[in-house]
Amino acid sequence: MSDQIAIPCILMRGGTSKGPYFRMEDLPADPAERDRVLLSVMGSPDVRQIDGIGGADTLTSKVAMVGRSSRPGVDVDYLFAQVSVDKPIVDTGPSCGNILAGVGPFAIEAGLVPARDGETRVVIYNINTDSLIEARVRTPGGRVAYGGEARIDGVPGTAAPVRLSFMDIVGSKTGRLLPTGNAIDVIDGVEATLIDVAVPMMILRAADLGKSGDETPAALDADRAFFARLEALRREAGRLMGLGEVADKVVPKAAILSAPSAGGHVRARYFVPHKTHAAMAVTGGLCIATAAMLEGSVADGLAIRPAGDDREILVEHPVGLFDVALLTRGSGTALEVVSGGAVRTARMLMRGEVFARA
Prior knowledge:
The chain is built from 6 helices and 16 strands. It has 358 residues and is α+β, with helices and mostly antiparallel strands.
């Protein structure tokens, strides 16, 4: 009897993240056993993840689980897991919009969704956030195309675009755009906008934490006093947002904002939450863009707000710009988010079997 379990999977890059994609039917149904398998597959807990396929980084220690959906009008269900690198933790609380970019292509490659000639529309139910997303994938001749002209900052070269349209993204975990009802809350003397669009977030002004906002991820990560302060604020933000004790959770996420300097509408540094994101998360970008357009938020005086309700918002991040298509109604605490969209890319890197300890 083998002391290893072979599990079919496809290793994919989704946006600026990377990880194994599994069919749900190929993983244990019991959540505890499933998490044990995922820790083994990724090689956690170990700072190098040397005994697994994790990349020893938050952005490359992610897992997508995809299965056929029984929901009317939905093609596949998607469950995301953030696997801690150095702790035995598998967190299915948050979602990941970058990994989401690979769900449509994976669903087609895995035979879960039939491809159409030209373009295939894949409707995805995100279990993590109880929300729907439409992905449009290029499929000339009924096959997924990975080559193309789309470029996203944080990924070298170009690739075929995967167009994501997010539906019902407000209140992903809390049920409200502003969980406290306020555009600004004060936490330990620091003003914060607590907002939930695609992902719950605590958004602060960089200057209020002694930062300029243009620091590199490495520089921020090296400032442990800054992260200790940020974490203390985040834990209280979680309580105020109705998320309970969040010490061992990755939501709410956090970001600091400053005035744009490279052609965008706002500059941001996004935290995941105990490390600085090398670029920008899709869900985080949607939430930050919304906060930037919210009058009365911490973005007042920092963000450039285009006129109108149907806007293209450019969020500056450490390696470029993140483009958000945002349709809203109203203003201030009465702001309504009708829809949000983004263009990402994805690429299949390897397919076969990965081995977990039995």
